[in-house]
Amino acid sequence: MNKIEYENHIFELSDGFLNSLYGEFKRDVTQNDKPDAAIILDGEEGTIGIEITTVDNYEDKQYFNDKKFYKDLEGKSIDDCIRGVVPERPIKSSSIPMEYNYIYKAIEGKARKYKSYKSGKKFKEVILLISSDYLDLNYKHFGSYLIPWTNHLLSKVKFPFEKVIFACGMTGGCVMIYDKNKPKLTSPKRDKNKELGVTHINSGFIPIGKSVNINKLFNAPPLAGKKQENLKNNL
After folding, report:
1. What's the pLDDT at 231?
2. Long-range contacts of range 57-61, CB-CB < 8 Å, 24 or more positions apart?
3. Coil, strand, or helix at residue 52?
4. What pLDDT score does 95 carry?
5. Is 115 helix (H, G, I), strand (E, B) or coil?
6. Looking at the 3D structure of the chain, how many domains does it have?
């Protein structure tokens, strides 16, 4: 999906959560840049500006989203699927560490945009709506580790956005990551065992009615590793 489709999708995921925070509202359809969206609150004068962004690493997204470079492998996967061949190796696979500052690193640079957003349209608040293709609310260390650390790091630098909300594409749920009015100044304890992260794969096509050993597939080396992506960039 393109940028506008992505932003609309994330906004729609957050609709109910925003309603629980602000009450009834309508979307300002004229607002689509700097910031990416806005809602007009019902029953009072006030508009909330919304900046929408991903927290995922650029290199990871480039690797998994590149269709052109890997089209031959994906074409072969389709042919194999039609012939009933079960894949033994994924097309793409990458281990993505979820370090304590995974979210913070992705969004801290947004702080410099806040002042111009807030003054430009006289927003009552400007909030940050974030998402990820690789991190979801089911990740076992999300609520107990990543949220407290992100909240603390943002509080420590007095991050200017009034709120940071995570919208989960996997579950459809949302959660508050940071509220400027409720800073978390006490540092959590770092635990590297909780930063091992996730393995994200593109398994290829699996024939209907065929079984596959998921663990074996996850552990097998990908047909196209990131080194090939680097090779493409150097051509």
Report:
1. 39
2. 57/96, 57/106, 59/226, 59/229, 60/94, 60/96, 60/134, 60/200, 61/133
3. strand
4. 83
5. helix
6. 1
CB-hemisphere CA count at 13 Å for 44? Answer: 9
Is 81 within 8 Å of 157 (Cβ atoms)? Answer: no
Which residues lie across from 44 on neighbouring strands?
none
- What phi and psi values does residue 224 have, to the nearest 5 degrees? -130, 105
Residues of the chain with pLDDT under 70: 67-70, 227-235
Smallest CA-to-CA distance from 133 within 33, 53, 216, 232 is with: 53
The position carrying tokens 């894949």 is 87
- Stated pTM of the model: 0.84
3-state secondary structure of 5: helix
Containing domain of residue 134, as a range? 1-235
Within 10 A of 39 (CB to CB), how many other CB atoms are there? 24
Alpha-carbon distance of 231 to 135, in angstroms, equals 27
CA distance from start to end of the chain: 27
